[in-house]
């Protein structure tokens, strides 16, 4: 059985979280570290926008500020995600790895097996989203409005959202596993034509997305979720996870990238 690194970052700032994922990708591309699965939380809560996503006219920056949320732009595409009461995961593995398919969609299927097994550990019945025909697209800036290929759904509702990019010969897939969702806060972060449209979107969201504690027969904590999905990724990917801590030098590199790039207005607001 292959051994991958397991990095538990606990709660970190939005800028640090995105910088850490980028540095892990870079180190893996240089052969300095094996494949990695990383778990992390967000302190303060963050709103991550997709690499190509527009901020102006889409994100309510005053609402973001009022709720004490920090905006950060991801390396990966897709729409905005509120990272608050959740477990976030990232997977870093070479495109040339023998288990990794060439296509993005097929790689989602392989990597998301770990998510499926994680939900099983929590006794939550999840399944892969298989959209019929061409994926529908909307003007919504909210990620959890609709599932994409092989994202996890529970009772027909999106329960985990993921995004993927490939750089330097490495696949980075990271995603959000909501434990609880504050739907009032969430919809204060986006611009709508008027309050009536916002309220309609908020009501409809309950039929489209779900958090773990809405479908679990017991109260699930952050630590419960970490333990379940660690076992899930080991079983789903047929790997053994070895806990690892980064050196002071590595942490310095991450902090420098967080400050220079992911804390900068040039990066976060350039669209």
Describe what you observe in this structure.
This protein is α/β, with parallel strands linked by helices and 271 residues long. It has one domain (2-268): BirA Bifunctional Protein, domain 2 (2-Layer Sandwich), CATH 3.30.930.10. It is 35% helix and 25% strand. The chain is built from 10 helices and 11 strands. It has helices at residues 14-29, 61-66, 104-111, 113-121, 183-187, 195-205, 212-215, 222-237, 248-262, 265-268, and strands at 2-12, 36-42, 46-49, 70-73, 81-83, 86-94, 127-128, 152-154, 157-167, 170-178, 239-243. The protein has an 8-stranded mixed β-sheet with strand order 7-8-9-10-6-2-1-11, with helices on both faces. Strand 1, helix 1 and strand 2 (36-42) form a beta-alpha-beta unit. Helix 1 crosses helix 9 (248-262) and helix 4 (113-121) packs across helix 8. It is globular.
List keywords for this structure.
271 residues, alpha/beta, BirA Bifunctional Protein, domain 2, eight-stranded mixed beta sheet, three-stranded mixed beta sheet
């Amino acid at each position: 059985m292959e051994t991958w690194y397991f990095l538990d970052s606990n709660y970190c700032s939005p800028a640090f979280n995105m910088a850490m994922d980028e540095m892990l990708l870079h180190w893996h591309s240089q052969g300095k570290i094996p494949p990695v699965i990383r778990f992390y939380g967000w302190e303060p809560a963050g709103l991550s926008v997709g690499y190509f996503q527009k901020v102006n006219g889409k994100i309510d920056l005053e609402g973001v500020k009022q709720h004490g949320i920090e905006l950060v732009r991801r390396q990966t595409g897709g729409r905005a995600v509120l990272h608050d009461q959740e477990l976030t995961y990232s997977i870093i593995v070479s495109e040339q790895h023998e288990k990794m398919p060439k296509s993005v969609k097929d790689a989602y299927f392989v990597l998301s097996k770990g998510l499926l097994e994680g939900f099983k550990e929590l006794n939550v019945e999840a399944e892969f989203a298989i959209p019929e025909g061409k994926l529908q697209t909307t003007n919504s800036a909210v990620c959890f409005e609709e599932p994409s290929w092989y994202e996890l759904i529970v009772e027909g509702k999106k329960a985990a959202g993921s995004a993927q990019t490939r750089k330097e010969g490495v696949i980075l897939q990271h995603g959000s596993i909501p434990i609880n969702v504050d739907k009032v806060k969430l919809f204060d972060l986006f611009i709508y034509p008027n309050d009536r449209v916002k309220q309609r979107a908020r009501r409809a969201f309950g039929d489209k997305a779900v958090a773990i504690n809405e479908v679990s027969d017991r109260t699930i904590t952050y630590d419960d979720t970490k333990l379940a999905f660690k076992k899930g990724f080991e079983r789903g990917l047929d790997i053994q996870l070895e806990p690892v801590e980064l050196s002071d030098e590595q942490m310095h590199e991450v902090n420098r990238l967080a400050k220079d790039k992911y804390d900068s207005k040039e990066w976060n607001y350039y669209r």
